[in-house]
Fold this protein.
Amino acid sequence: MEVKITSENFATLKNGQQPLVVDFWAIWCGPCRMISPIISELAEKYDGKIVVGKCDVEENEDLALEFGIRNIPTILFFKNGEMVDKLVGAVPKAKLEEKFEALL
């Protein structure tokens, strides 16, 4: 299950026991809508192993600025509180799953 990432809960999730994947998106973004079902599917598959969240760049501009998000979708991968990987743009499911597996 995906969680809603906000400025208020980001630090807690980032520094949690499980790796964190954050999908930076916006409602008007076509490529974001294309990968959204894939992100949801992977969130279900890795439930209990990886926390998967969605961060609306318009509602959380401070987080988008902090990580230099200029294009969406951008997906950031965190492990042990540190960003370890990044994907920009709509990518195939296989590429996303490869990045999820690398977090474990």
User: Anything to note?
Assistant: The longest helix spans residues 30-45. The first strand starts at residue 2 and ends at 4. Residues 64 and 84 are 17 Å apart (CA to CA). The chain has a mean pLDDT of 96.
